[in-house]
C-alpha cells in the first residue's frame, strides 16, 4: 500500500500457524516533509506502534511519544497468543518506560467503554486536593497535574461527556491507566467533541465509544482541532482526528482510527 507524498511505517502481526494468509497489522503514513522528525521505536507488543516525534525537528521543549494501540477484545481469536499478559498490561509497562522520556499521547481502538466516569488529576503548586469529581492517586508529581485552568486554556471542558453511558472491564482499566500515568481522555472534552463524547463505533447491533485519544499535561498545549468524524464505507470505526502544533504555528494533522488493516 502506497500513498504519493507519504512514507510508511508498517508493523505486521505474527502469522497464525494454520493461517493461509497474513494476520494484518498496523500502518502509519507520514508526510515526506516531516518524516525526518518521526522515528519508530521498537516495541515487542504486536498490537502497538511506538513513534517518537523529535523535539528539535518540531520545535518543542520535549520529545513527544505517540503510542498507537489496538486492544483485542477478550473473546478475540488472537487472545491465546499471549495468555500470560493482557493488552493493558503491555500498555502499562510501556507507559512506565516512556513517561520519563518526554510527553505522551496514546491513541487507538482500546475497546474500552468508560461511560461518564470522571478521573482527572487536579492540583497546583500550593495545594493538592480530592473532590467529588477528581480522584487523586497516592503519589503524583505536581508538574503533571491537570487543573481546570489547564483544561479551559486549551479549549477543553473540565467535565468529560459521553453519549455511551456503559462501562466495561476494559473501561475500568483505561481509567486506572489514566490515573496511574497522569493522562487525560480528550474524547468528550476537547474542541470539536467537547460536550458531546460521540460514538466512535457503529454496527448492526448498535453504537459505542471505544476509540480514544489520551494525552499528558505537557502534550495538551500542542493538541488542536480534536474531532470524531463520521464513519466511512471502509470501516465500522469513525476516524478520530486531531492536529499537533509545532514551531512557527505550523500544524501537522494526525488521524487515528484508520490505521488498522
Automatic annotation (TrEMBL):
The keyword Ligase applies. The keyword Ligase applies. Keywords: Ligase. GO terms for molecular function: ligase activity. InterPro entries: Endo/exonu/phosph_ase_sf. This is DNA ligase 1-like protein. It comes from Elysia marginata.
Amino acid at each position: 500500500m502506497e500513498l504519493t507524498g507519504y512514507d510508511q511505517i508498517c508493523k505486521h502481526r505474527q502469522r497464525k500457524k494454520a493461517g493461509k494468509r497474513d494476520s494484518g497489522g498496523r500502518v502509519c503514513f507520514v508526510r515526506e516533509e516531516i518524516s525526518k522528525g518521526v522515528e519508530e521505536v521498537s516495541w515487542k507488543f504486536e498490537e502497538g506502534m511506538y513513534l517518537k516525534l523529535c523535539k528539535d525537528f518540531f520545535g518543542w521543549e520535549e520529545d513527544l511519544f505517540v503510542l498507537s494501540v489496538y486492544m483485542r477484545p477478550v473473546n478475540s481469536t488472537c487472545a491465546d497468543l499471549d495468555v500470560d499478559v493482557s493488552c493493558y498490561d503491555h500498555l502499562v509497562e510501556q507507559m512506565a518506560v516512556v513517561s520519563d522520556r518526554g510527553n505522551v499521547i496514546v491513541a487507538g481502538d482500546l475497546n474500552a467503554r468508560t461511560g461518564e466516569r470522571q478521573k482527572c488529576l487536579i492540583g497546583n503548586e500550593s495545594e493538592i486536593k480530592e473532590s467529588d469529581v477528581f480522584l487523586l492517586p497516592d503519589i503524583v508529581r505536581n508538574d503533571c497535574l491537570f487543573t481546570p485552568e489547564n483544561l479551559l486554556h486549551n479549549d477543553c471542558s473540565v467535565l468529560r461527556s459521553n453519549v455511551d453511558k456503559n462501562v466495561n472491564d476494559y473501561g475500568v482499566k483505561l481509567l486506572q491507566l489514566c490515573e496511574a500515568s497522569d493522562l487525560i481522555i480528550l474524547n468528550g472534552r476537547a474542541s470539536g467533541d467537547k460536550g458531546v463524547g460521540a460514538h466512535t463505533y457503529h454496527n448492526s447491533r448498535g453504537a459505542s465509544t471505544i476509540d480514544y485519544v489520551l494525552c499528558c499535561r505537557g502534550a495538551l498545549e500542542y493538541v488542536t482541532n480534536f474531532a470524531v468524524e463520521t464513519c466511512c464505507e471502509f470501516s465500522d470505526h469513525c476516524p478520530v482526528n486531531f492536529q499537533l502544533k509545532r514551531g512557527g504555528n505550523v500544524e501537522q494533522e494526525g488521524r487515528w482510527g484508520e490505521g488498522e488493516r
